[in-house]
Every structure is written in C-alpha cells, then in structure tokens.
Amino acid sequence: MSGYVGILVSDPWLQNQFTQVELRSLKTHFMSMRRESGKLTLRDLASRMSRLKVVGENLTEEDRASCIQDLYQNLDEEVDFELFLKVYLKLHAHASTRTGSVAKNSSAFLKAATTTLLHTISESEKASYVAHINNYLGEDDFLKKYLPIDPSTNDLFEIAKDGLKTLKHSCFCCSKLINVAVAGTIDERAINTKRILNPWERNENHTLCLNSAKAIGCTVVNIGTQDFIEGRIQLLADLNLKKTPQLLELVGDSKDVEELMSLPPEKILLRWMNFLLNKAGYKKIVTNFSSDVKDAEAYAHLLNVLAPEYSNPSTLTVKDTFTRAKLVLEHADRMGCKRYLTAKDIVEGSPNLNLAFVAHIFQHRNGLSTQTKQISFLETLPDDAQISREERAFRFWMNSLGNSTYIDNVFEDLRNGWLLLETLDKVSPGIVNWKVANKPPIKLPFRKVENCNQVVKIGKQLKFSLVNIAGNDIVQGNKKLILAYLWQLMRYNILQLLKNLRFHSHGKEITDADILRWANTKVSSSGTQSRMNSFKDKSLSDGIFFLELLSAVQPRAVNWSLVTKGVADDEKKMNATYIISIARKLGCSIFLLPEDLTEVNQKMILTLTASIMYWYLKQPVDQDKPSGTSDSETISNSTLDDSASESSIEENGNL
C-alpha cells in the first residue's frame, strides 16, 4: 500500500468538489503563490491565478479582479488553502460560463456528474425544460397561479431563488417536480410556506430540495443552495420492470431478464427502440441519442410502427433531413406526444432533448404487448425489498460524492473495482495506490480482479469485517458481499466525519454506542421520556423518538400539530416521511426511505441518527451551555451503559 497521505480539507462539501489529482495540483500552485510574497490576499489572486488552466486562460486579470470584488468585501483578507479553493470554484464557474456563451443563445451551469464539469444549455434545451415544468405542474393547486414560466426569460435559472417575482415560493415548484419524479420524496408539510420568508427559512427550503434531489439520485456536486440543480427528469421513471413489466418482451428468454433489470434507463430505452425498429425492418442499430438519430430516419420508422394511422409516406422519401425531422414531429403531435425539441435539435443531434423525446414517446405509447406470457416470469423472481432498498441507498450515497461515472446499479457498475476505488479515495483521501489501479475501459478480467483485490485490501486496512471476501466476489457481482462492503464503507465515512468534526484533537474513535448515547442524552435533556434502547428498537417505528430528537436539536423544526400518534401503519408512515423531510430541511444528507423507519432497518436508523448528530455538532457552540462543557466532552467522558454497548450494529457487516 502506498504511504502517500492525501490532501484533506476540513469542509466535506469542498473536499468532494475535487479529485486528489486536482487538489495536489492546486495545492502546488497555492504554495508557490504564497512563497512568492510570503502572504497571499484576495487582492493578489486576480494576477496570481493567471497561470491556472481555465481560470487563467479564459478570464482576463480584470475579469478575475471584478469577480473577486463582487464576491468578497475585504480584499486584504489573507487567503488560506480552503478559501483559495472556494475562489477557484467561483472563478472556474465564471470562466466556464464565458466559454459556453460563445455559442449563440446559450446559457451555462455546472452539472454535477463530475467535478467542475461544464454543461452548456441551448435555448432549445431551456425551452424544453420549461415546457416540462409547465406541463407537469401547470394544474397544481398551489402553483398554477405562478405558472407558466416564460421560456424566453432566464426565470428557469432563477427558480432556486425564493425572491423571484413570478414564483415567490419556488421551493414548492422544485419539490413538486421532485415528487413527480419519485412520489412522496418530500413531505410538503416540512416546507416553509408563509407569505414572506426570512433568509433562514428560504435557505431551509433550498436545503430540503437539494438534499431530496440527492436522495432520488440527482448528482448535486458543485451546487450551493442558490444554484440550479440538474438531474434525470421524470420521463425515465417508468423504464424498469416494476413499472412496465411489458419490457420483458425485449428479452429472448428468462436468462436475459437479470441483465435487463441491471441496465440503466437510457440503455433500456435504446433496447426498446431497436426492438421496435427491427420489427419495422430498419437495419441500423441506434446506439445513442445524438449522431444515430440526426437524419430522423430511425424516428420515422419508430413512429410508423407505433402509430401507423398517422404516418405520412413522404417522411421516408424526402431527401432533406430537416424536412424529414419536421414531418416526424408532426407525426408525434398527431399521436398526442408533447414536444421537447425542434427539428433543428434533431438534425443537430442534441442528446438531452432527443433522450427526452424518445422517453416521452415510450411513456405515451410503448407498443409492447399487455398480454405477454413472460410477465408471469416476474412472479418467480426473488423480491427482496431489503436488498433493493439498501442498494438504492448506497448507490445514491456514492453518486452524491461526485465520482467520475454515474452509478445505475451497484451490483453491475462496481464490478471492475474502479468506482469503489474512487469512493474509497473520497472517504479516505490518499488511501488508494493509483499506480497499480487499472482505469476503465478494462477488457482483461484479471485487471478487474486486481482493482477489486485492492478494494478488499483497503477494506481490511480500515478494519472492515471481510471474512471470506475476495476481489473476485466483487467482479462476479456477489450481492450480499457487495452490500456488506458498501455498508461498512458508508458507516466508516459517517464515523470519520464525526471524528474529524469534533474529536480529531483527542484522536477518539466514534462508535455506534457514542451515537446512541448522544441521541438519548439530547432527547432526555429536552425534558421528554422517550428513549432508544438500540438501533433495532422496534418502538422506533412510530417515529416519535426522532421527532423529539429533531425538536431537541432545533426547537422550531417540528410542527407538532402535524404529528400523528404513530399507532396505525399509515400514521407511522406519515411520521416517517415528515422526519426525513425535516432532517433534510435542516441540512442532513440522508438516503433512507420511510419504510426503513417504520420497519426499523438498523443500518438506516444509525445513518439517520449520525446525520442528525453531525448536523448538530457543526452548528456554532450554544452560548447557553455551561462554561467548560461541550458535546464532545459529554460523549468522550460518558461511561457506556449496557444498552448502548449492546446496541452497536453487528459491526461491520457480518450480515
């Protein structure tokens, strides 16, 4: 194992904006700048950053100076490395917007699939996103008086600001859109809805939306509470066997079903499209939503199969691709499909808009048999809801870290070991020996095993319980062992965040029992009698303990008039959804579902409790505390009681 120690940043959000390679390069530049004068101030950065790529190449010194002056009042403030990184991110975004605006009629924002990645949005894309919002939310009782958004303005990019004249409660728009994509993600009872919101209430609304977006799989890296969030739109929600079992028609026999189930929605959409095109006698294979559909021929054949009653013979005989694209869109209009693109977008191969177009066609009319005999095969598949929920939680957590590739299925996408190594490097910077790692694409199986062997080796170094686990188990997609590893990795990350936040000076390791005791102490100190005996305490299913914990850490967080007694199952679920939304609104990054609370999934209960604890300990020290005491001392000096000792989850994944 390499002895290199990675570059650590105290702010986890800031740490996740950069790879270790980027941090090393920026640290070198920073140290060089500071050595030149012995002191580095904000005023100095405009000239000194000229040597940095993107920031130096695409902005003049005057541009950089103007931007920094707009961001900071005291230009004589001394710059440490973390402030340097924050300024760099802002300038990088500004420079990227500059380069993106060279294209006619374009807007730009940071997309979060990888760190500091620019995504340029054309006016057509903007109009399509606006149309999607107007279409799906236009009849909402609360929002219809504020919609539609005008696509000719930049109101779409202002949607995260709660001061927008035409959309004062924009969080409602974001939350509704998130709930359209994944129903029930945000409990609207948790949203601040009074007519005039103060800055803290607006920030809570934005935080709730951002954390909820992360929880449904949107990547939200490089995005603050006043920035635009970008994720997969609701149109892809039905592209799975659970929502559309007719997709089984796409596979030749039952042995291919598992492969189909592991595909991301975009790949399923392509397979569906090619399945119907083959029926139509179209010989080409469509492999993307850009170059392969630019001539509009594939669209013409697809729509002829799905809606022959609206076909126009001229569509396939016309020579001009632009004219053919217009005829295709007219065909789609006659079918009743909402438009998400123009003929120009088709011939220019806009991948996002073409994907949205095909997804909407699928949603409107998929052409698959509703009587297929294969649907009965679904009944023979193991329906392990626990595995499914845990896979979802770990997947969304890993995607929230900003790895280089979006993960659609942990059992498939982690098999070459690379994304696991990236995640390990995020969680414990410098622990991966990149010199012996094999970067994708990896064709030789033994190279994948080498990566996964290093993953297992690092896990043992971090004291994970990895009995009888070898790298080849990950390559083979062993579900139980992969989930056991990911749980320990996620748990390690949570405990390290807590340790680095308050306990690094004492070198104290945080345990499950510490988290349990802290939660019980907070609830007890608020004057209530609730108690959590362990993270698998069945009494937690009513949600009352966590509502009291949230109220203890932030007295105004819970509106008790909205809380149920938690006796019936529906009451328990109402409390659970409220708890999750309140925690996200405070700033907790959590990935559990209401069922994890009502069924008392001890792993997810631990992550929820630890996230609330982490949020609380990050807050400024409470002035009302007795002098000389702190939460860290309370935790480090307490004696473990028997219930706390017994509560520690079967540590590290002996599942």
Describe, in short, the structure shown.
This protein has 29 helices and 2 strands. By secondary structure, it is mainly α.
Summarize the structure in words.
- The chain has 655 residues and is an all-alpha fold.
- It has five domains: 12-99, Recoverin, domain 1 (Orthogonal Bundle); 123-230, Calponin-like domain (Actin-binding Protein, T-fimbrin, domain 1); 247-364, Actin-binding Protein, T-fimbrin, domain 1; 384-501, Calponin-like domain (Actin-binding Protein, T-fimbrin, domain 1, Orthogonal Bundle); 512-618, Calponin-like domain (Actin-binding Protein, T-fimbrin, domain 1, Orthogonal Bundle), CATH 1.10.418.10.
- The protein has helices at residues 12-15, 20-37, 42-48, 55-58, 61-71, 81-100, 123-137, 170-181, 199-215, 257-262, 265-279, 297-306, 314-317, 321-335, 343-348, 351-364, 385-400, 410-413, 418-427, 445-461, 471-475, 479-503, 512-525, 544-553, 569-586, 594-598, 602-618, 631-637, 642-647; strands at residues 106-111, 117-122.
- It has a two-stranded antiparallel ribbon with strand order 1-2.
- The protein is globular, with a radius of gyration of 26 Å.
- The two termini are 28 Å apart.
- Mean pLDDT is 79; it is low at 1-5, 100-120, 160-169, 221-233 and 622-655.
User: Span from first to last CA?
Assistant: 28 Å
Strand fraction: under 5%
Q: Kindly state the number of beta strands.
A: 2
CATH level 1 class label of the largest domain: Mainly Alpha
Looking at the overall shape, the CATH architecture of the largest domain is Orthogonal Bundle
Structural class by secondary-structure content: mainly alpha
Largest sheet: 2 strands, antiparallel
Return the CATH topology of the largest domain: Actin-binding Protein, T-fimbrin, domain 1
Low-confidence stretches: 1-5, 100-120, 160-169, 221-233, 622-655
Number of domains: 5
Name given to the CATH homologous superfamily of the largest domain: Calponin-like domain
